[in-house]
From TrEMBL:
This is XdhC family protein. It comes from Stutzerimonas zhaodongensis. Residues 168-309 form the XdhC Rossmann domain. PANTHER family: ALDEHYDE OXIDOREDUCTASE MOLYBDENUM COFACTOR ASSEMBLY PROTEIN, MOLYBDENUM COFACTOR INSERTION CHAPERONE PAOD. Residues 15-68 form the XdhC- CoxI domain.
């Protein structure tokens, strides 16, 4: 999903450099069932050329038809698709879904080109940004991201969080880690696995080769950015503890370790005594990892882990579930 967003921004940059007007569309919210999540992007030219996706195809057709008729000339506007019964029949949105889409019309300019370059760097880089668009003037600014919902409307402004793809760093290989990788790939995450144990050399997880290094070494070398989740799932303190000690010194948004409450308490004491971690650093670690779903099997535990990772990534408290 994030890779598709990067293709959208890359193509927008190319078209702006060639002197084209572009329409940048962002899914702001969905009600009911919808194929794309808030934050999904599409860019189009007046002639109908486009890259990206807002739904399964029907909403795109409706948008491009409006564009061909000369509509959507405002600097910024919000369009709702699927709101009426006629819309739902025509667009074939599943389960009564409704999409709210921000449509921006930008003419080629140096300022707009620079704005797109910053978006490109955010998607490729190591920090998240908050993109704030004035719904009256279409002016957009980029601010440091403080977390929260992926998108929201605040009065006459739309706010969209943008940044690198969610990265799942598997600190060691285990059956739970393998199941986590499968869920993560289905969610569109980047998956990286590190394990120095000789028996893991050459192993593939979801088509990705396990890197034969300690996770702590990979993390220390800059392997974590603000959209990284570090999950330690081996029960091997030589791998798990070292990874946790390095991870708390990074901007990773989620750090977790598998184990019972008793095991987690012993780990916390060990990390403080041996690793020198402060109470604040230990507080960053989700121990036990995941949501309490009563999970037993590796797949069930992995489901609870990835659900908790996504909860934190979306800025949801446990009480809000």
């Amino acid at each position: 999903m994030q890779q598709l967003d990067l293709q959208v921004i890359d193509k927008a940059l190319q078209w702006v450099a060639d002197g084209h007007d572009v329409w940048l569309c962002t899914v702001l919210s969905t009600y009911g069932s919808a194929p794309r999540a808030p934050g999904a992007l599409l860019v189009a030219r007046a002639d109908g050329a486009h890259v990206g996706s807002l739904s399964g195809g029907c909403v795109e057709e409706e948008f491009l038809a409006s564009l061909a008729q000369g509509d959507l000339q405002a600097p910024a506007q919000i369009i709702r698709y699927g709101e009426t019964d006629d819309d739902r029949r025509r667009l074939r949105l599943p389960c009564g879904g409704v999409l709210q889409v921000l449509v921006e019309h930008h003419r080629p300019s140096e300022a707009w080109h620079d704005h797109l370059l910053t978006l490109q760097a955010a998607l490729q880089g190591q920090r998240r940004l908050l993109r704030r668009v004035d719904l009256t003037t279409g002016e957009a600014e980029l601010l440091p991201d403080q977390g929260g919902e992926q998108t929201r409307i605040c009065g006459e402004q739309a706010e969209i969080r943008i940044g690198p793809a969610l990265r799942l760093l598997l600190a060691g290989v285990s059956p739970v880690a393998q199941a986590c990788a499968s869920f993560a790939r289905a969610l569109g995450c980047e998956v990286i696995a590190c394990d120095p144990r000789e028996e893991m050399h050459g192993m593939l997880i979801e088509g990705i080769e396990v890197q034969p290094v300690l996770p702590s070494v990979f993390i220390e070398a800059g392997g974590c950015h603000e959209s990284t989740a570090v999950v330690a799932l081996t029960h091997d303190p030589r791998i798990d503890d070292l990874a946790l000690m390095e991870a708390v010194r990074t901007p990773a948004f989620y750090i977790g370790a598998m184990g019972s409450r008793q095991t987690s308490a012993k780990r916390a004491e060990r990390l403080q005594r041996v690793g020198g971690l402060s109470a604040e650093q230990i507080e960053r670690i989700h121990m036990p990892i995941g949501l309490d779903l009563g999970s037993k099997t590796p797949a069930e535990i992995a489901l609870s882990v990835m659900a908790d990772v996504l909860r934190v990534y979306r800025g949801k408290s446990r009480d809000a579930l």
